[in-house]
Amino acid sequence: MENIDPKKILVIDDEPSLREGARRILSKMNFEVFLASKGEDGLEVIDKEPIAIVLLDMKMPGMDGMEVLKCIMALERGIIVIVITGYATVETAIEAMQRGAYNFIPKPYQPDQLRIAVSRAREKLEFAIETKRLQEERKRTLEDLHTEKSRTLTIIESLPNGVMVTNSEGRVVLINPACYRYLDIDQKKEPGDIKLEYIFKSQELCDLILDISKGRYIDYTDIPAHEIEVNNKKFFMVRCRPVMGERRECLGAVVNIVDISTMKAIDQVKSEFVAKVTHELRSPLSTIHEQLNMVMMSNMGENRGEGSEDQYILSRAKEKTKALIATIGDLLDLSRIEAGMAAKDPKPIQIDEILKNVGDFLNARAVAKNQTLTVTTPENPLPPITADPMAVESVFGNLISNAINYTQEGGQIDVTCDLAGNNIRVKVKDNGFGIDAKYMDKIFERFYRVKNDKTRFINGTGLGLPIVKGIVDSMNGYINVESEVNRGTSFTVLIPIKKTSIGIM
Ligand code: ADP
Known about the structure:
By secondary structure, the protein is of the alpha/beta class. The chain has 13 helices and 17 strands. The chain has four domains: 8-139, Response regulator (Rossmann fold); 142-258, PAS domain (Beta-Lactamase, 2-Layer Sandwich), CATH 3.30.450; 264-338; 347-496, Heat Shock Protein 90.
């Protein structure tokens, strides 16, 4: 089929008038017409030109039509042959068809008979060409698919991150070499023989992978990442996602495992350094603060007393040392949370009572800004949780202080708590300045403070929310923030009742 051009047609006939007549008709049908008066000449043309259709007279002097037909068929080029026969030679026509001719036209023929026969031949040819093209395309697609599959597999195999894949029943179907290495999995074991529980010690993580595999997590933006420790020395971040099919059906789960041991080690060195430095700074700074206080007191009564320039400079210095002492205090708290010095003094506590106490304590600050601070607790006391009361006070003290700080004079702050499933839910809601959506993730970072015209003159360390998040995380809890600029902010904290909660301080 490669050596034929559907536009090229050859007429082999010893009668000049029939050859010419055929040329006229076929040229009008947009063919490029070749003519030959004998079989040998015709075969020569076929040899040189990619002829697609041959009109072949059966009865010719010298090499007859049947001989020529045999030679053309032997070429196996997919050439279509229409034989032209006299009335007396129906048997010849039949024989020619048996030998591979496509059709025959009896002689003498009308122009229309020729047109119809050639048109059909052309259609057959086009159909054959299209079928061949589709076959080749299909073959190519299958080959591509095969190469693509093995290429993807090679890439997964050589990834530096650990990758594990499960099917929709949660059975492990693929583990790459990095995953075998990272998680210390026996190399001799085939993925199909490995149970999730053998790979991950955390039942919570196994359940999560199973749930994702079975399609219970189609929206995968909120699937939590897990940190795991292997053999007491290596730390990994494990992220799981569903593998979705073309019709949005879940095909299984893919688990990505990243080695974070170095990051953890650096983080620990950093935290230890910060803890050490802040610790060293705390006593001299407190001394300076006290000494400034004493100098200010002794200046009173002299003409360098209140209102004098000396006094102004001293009070500014005192303010700055006070702010530094606050930062140091917060940094030390944070270091202790990060060092896992949790559960220092856990005991059964009533969150509703703690909220009322913190509310009473901070009410004076709200009143000073003409704000209304309400704390609403359920009529029936909430179930107790086991935690360090100081840590829980710190969480809500920070959130309520922030609500007071970042709300205008005369604003409203509402604290509510209730039971939500197995959690105690506390909401601290204000109608203050709000937080722009683009800062939402950043506010939990250390030292991050939103700077704008309204917040610029408010004192703070930028460590309150990291402390809150650290404590909530250590209690296996969850914190969420919703906010709208100039409308207000609402922080929601969920603390599980069953799991033992902790705290520091
Ligand atoms: P600090 O209050 O010491 O600056 P935080 O870590 O407690 O530090 O808070 C970080 C930032 O988040 C604040 O500087 C403030 O811009 C923003 N923020 C926190 N709580 C609120 C709130 N209730 N309303 C508006 N902004 C808030």
